[in-house]
Design a protein that fits this description.
The protein is of the alpha+beta class and 140 residues long. The chain has three helices and six strands; from the N terminus they run H-H-E-E-H-E-E-E-E. The protein has one domain: Roll (Thiol Ester Dehydrase, Chain A), CATH 3.10.129.10. Helices cover 22% and strands 45% of the residues. Strand 1 (25-30) and strand 2 form a beta hairpin.
Length: 140
């Protein structure tokens, strides 16, 4: 498989209004996954000043879905069926980076994984590890 055009992939990634509202974007795309990022905003914090788990989970879920979409055919979409995440440490920093990839593509289901890293003062620390099963469905 050949990696899709980065500009087209970015357009598809931001087509979800919630993702566009967050400000998440695609940094890179390959034949089996993508790297995405999000600048941390004060509104993304929980009560103790850490990045809310829901923000990290959203970035991981959408990135894994887009990685799975690399294997979808014309007229197909990808939906999350099952999602598991482990929060490894609290995230506090300027930016989140997610690296998502496909572990096993299939006609009906695609198995994916993602790692989210928080960038603080130029240092990168993994804060979340996730896996998901994506269903490939017809759009009509």
């Amino acid at each position: 498989m050949v990696a899709p055009d980065l500009d087209r992939f970015k357009e598809m990634f931001r087509a979800a209004p919630f993702i566009a509202d967050l400000g998440a974007d695609v940094d890179a795309v390959s034949e089996d996954g993508c790297t995405t990022s999000l600048l941390v905003q004060p509104r993304f914090q929980q009560q103790n000043g850490f990045v809310h788990a829901g923000v990290q989970a959203t970035l991981a879920d959408h990135s894994m879905g887009m990685a799975a979409y690399l294997f979808a055919q014309s007229g197909q979409a990808v939906l999350t069926v099952e999602f598991k995440m482990s929060l490894l440490r609290a995230a506090k920093g300027e930016r989140l980076v997610c690296r998502a990839k496909v572990l096993k593509p299939g006609k009906q289901f695609v198995f994916t994984e993602a790692e989210v890293f928080c960038i603080a003062n130029g240092k990168e620390q993994m804060t979340l590890k996730a896996s998901a099963t994506m269903a490939v469905v017809a759009t009509s």
